[in-house]
Amino acid sequence: MVKILIFRLIYFERMLQLQYQKKLIEVGTDEAGRGCLSGPVVAAAVILPDAFSHPLLNDSKQLTEKQRMLLRPYIEQHAVAWAVGYVTPKKIDEINILQASILAMHKSISKLKVNPEFIIVDGNKFNPYKDIPHKTIVKGDAKFMSIAAASVLAKTYRDEYMERIDMEFPHYFWKKNKGYPTKQHRDGIREFGITKYHRKSFRLLPEQLSLF
After folding, report:
1. What is the largest CA-CA distance in the chain?
2. Is residue 178 part of a domain?
3. Least trusted range by pLDDT, from 53-62, 149-158, 196-205
4. What's the CA gap between 11 and 74, in Å, rounded?
5. What is the pLDDT of residues 157-182, one digit of tens each?
6. CB 39 within 8 A of CB 89
7. 86 lies in a domain?
8. What whole-number distance in Å separates Cα of residue 197 and Cα of residue 90?
């Protein structure tokens, strides 16, 4: 009973944090895949209605894969607007991962079918998008529902992408590790070298062998 009451208190506290401000059409944005050795960085942008709620919604890193996949269609169905943007490993190598993450967010916002009037961003770095005001929020994916929803979409769409390219290059176990620097992934790099999906500007191995 105590656990249920605590959960409800947390849930209703989160309900009060649907928006950062209520006067403008607000979009939340977040990215996935920033710390990976391979694959794109993916961002999502989500505009939620005032009445939106779901008891599972949280930062995608705190959810199980099953929970994320349950949430995704609910978010897509009930959002005012949503979109996903991708930035390739080649572009990541050209402009660095921070700028690529911001670019992915810009791409996702640009695809929205509803024009936002205010942007809230997970983290503490962002480049202005057009003339739309924005606010960066550290751990925003655990504080505001639109950012949490964006984190779920970014994570699930990126995971699906990594599962598809795993069929092309199964030696790196991307279906399981999604491109993160696991032992299996790095063992695959040692044995087979790198692919077109690897980020050459990253430290792919601790000893950083000559890979390309």
Report:
1. 58
2. no
3. 53-62
4. 17
5. 999 999 999 999 999 999 999 999 99
6. yes
7. yes
8. 8
